[in-house]
Known about the structure:
Elements: H1 20-31, H2 39-52, E1 56-60, H3 63-73, E2 81-85, H4 90-99, E3 102-106, H5 117-123, E4 128-132, H6 143-153, E5 156-160, E6 168-169, E7 172-173, E8 180-184, E9 197-201, H7 203-213, H8 246-257, H9 259-277, E10 283-285, E11 292-293, E12 299-303, H10 312-321, H11 337-343, H12 351-359, E13 360-363, H13 371-387
Parallel strand pairs: 2-3, 2-4, 4-5, 5-8
Antiparallel strand pairs: 1-9, 6-7, 6-11, 8-9, 10-12, 12-13
Helix pairs in contact: 1-8, 2-8, 3-4, 3-7, 9-13
Amino acid sequence: MRELEQSSEFIGFAPPLIEEVEVAAVGAALRSGWLSTGPRVKEFEEKFSETVGATAALALNSCTAGLHLALKAHGVGPGDEVITSTMTFCATANVIEHTGARTVLADVVPGTLLIDPLDVARKLTPKTKAIIPVHYAGQACEMASLEDLATSESIDLIEDAAHCLPTLDGTQMVGSKSHFTAFSFYATKNITTGEGGMLTGAKDLVDRARVLSLHGMSRDAWKRFQKGGSWKYDVAEPGYKYNMTDIQAALGLAQLSKLESMYLKRKQLAGLYKAAFCDSDVVRPLAERPNATHSWHLFVVELNLEALTISRDEMLAELSQKNIGASVHYIPVHMLSYYAQKYGYRPNHFPFAFQAFERMISLPLSPAHKETEIEKVIETLQFLVKKFRK
Ligand SMILES: *Cc1c(COP(=O)(O)O)cnc(C)c1O
């Protein structure tokens, strides 16, 4: 067997694409004299709303904060149940626990790993207060069935769109609905502010979340320090400290201006992976929903373990040794010890998520990657598949 010429440099999993525009924008924010929530945050909220077609948007210090505020704004608390996907980052479930409500998990549809609306329907009880669908990897869940369910049962929908910029469900942009949708600008996400998030939705909902996002103070508190601003405020309900800074918003505005080109680059690089593995009996890319536009946040493949002599973990170790930074998204929530112990879950209680978890690898994907780097990842994975084939 021919030896592989491995990458001499480490190919990172998801390096951010930071260029001179971002550096200049952050420099200008620092020199402006206004560091916390101010005019740049307002502009970022407006531009973001335009981009996704939202009526209103609230910039925050994380997507986790956005999901938490959305639950609080709907009054979710002890005695309530909230349904979400077990195939998500722990933050989606943790915020449900923070409110005192019970986390009810649903399994995923094999192939896409999107929350299964039929399992959601099975998990409904009179206590169900909200559903948090997770648009896994960057494609939208089947929102029509979830919306029908939510409407008929008077349940609030809160979309976890941490992976979804830009994503279309049919002709509708994720983030354009009247219910809450939360986006993430964490360092690895499709646009980044280092840490940050955005909550979109109808104006009255977003206004309620805005008050809660800054201590529960009654008016736009940052205006207190502007010329003509008043020192007076009231607190009707103790809120949180979840606001975004102007430094982050400056970075976000610069990133947002590159959204189209960064999306096209992701799509092109994902196309290289798809072309390489579409006929493979060992490396299987996730299925794509018809009529949905994928943001290509993650490129996830499932290994056909029956055809290999090594496990997924061993494959990841082999990739790492060959200078490739692959990852796993996600350890299903029901397998994390807090949730397993509290709710008595075993791995096979969610068979589709569990089966996918044991097989999945997220391959490096970022607009900062060169085509040659993605080609090296493909060559390396193909080499390893050949080497460890049964
Ligand atoms: C990243 C992520 C979050 C949390 O985003 P933060 O901005 O880091 O709080 C939530 N859900 C999913 C699916 C994510 O990938």
